[in-house]
Amino acid sequence: AVTRAVRGRGVLVAEVRYRHRGWNGARADAAKDAETALNDLRERIGSVPVVLLGHSMGGRAALRAAGDPAVRGVVALAPWCPSGEPVEHLGGRRLYLLHDETDRVTSARESWDFVRRARAAGADAVGIPMRIGGHAMLRGADLWHRRAAELTAALLSHG
């Protein structure tokens, strides 16, 4: 959906491949892999505006990596945002966190708390309640895809 939304606009869509399964405590492997991908992108094509999009642990990794100067914003779908997750690095970033309140894997309440804390740190953060989909986003998948694509395209258009 994102690829279609930005087609013909000179946008590269790339995917982070995790080296390890899971977050792995303080190692935060997924976040490190996202940061490595940003550095690899910079080496390949120079400094360009970046929007990070991630689901669940990928949303957490995207939010952690958002301190990179190239990152314009983040779209996080049903992100895993445990209390105490750092937000200080998010000042000046636009963040969209989408979450279905019936999600039983990750907590919408923790996402909304993250949004409040990110705002206090200077981020332009928005929590978007979704009314369908649960964690896997299977029911209403077209809505989730459309919203992710629209928000990603909007973030790329700003600035």
Could you explain how this protein is built, in words?
The protein has 159 residues and is α/β, with parallel strands linked by helices. The chain has one domain (2-157): 3-Layer(aba) Sandwich (Rossmann fold), CATH 3.40.50.1820. It has helices spanning 2-6, 29-45, 57-65, 108-120, 141-157, and strands spanning 50-55, 71-77, 94-100, 124-130. Strands 1-2-3-4 form a four-stranded parallel β-sheet, with helices on both faces. Helix 2 (29-45) crosses helix 3. The chain starts with a helix and ends with a helix. The mean pLDDT is 91.
How would you describe this structure in keywords?
159 residues, alpha/beta, Rossmann fold, 4-stranded parallel sheet, 5 helices, 38% helix, globular
Note the gap between the termini: 23 Å
Q: Looking across the biggest beta sheet, what order are the strands in? A: 1-2-3-4
User: How would you spell out the order of helices and strands?
Assistant: HHEHEEHEH
Computed structural class: alpha/beta
Under CATH, the homologous superfamily reads Alpha/Beta hydrolase fold, catalytic domain
Q: Can you tell me the CATH architecture?
A: 3-Layer(aba) Sandwich
Helix count equals: 5
How many domains? The number is 1
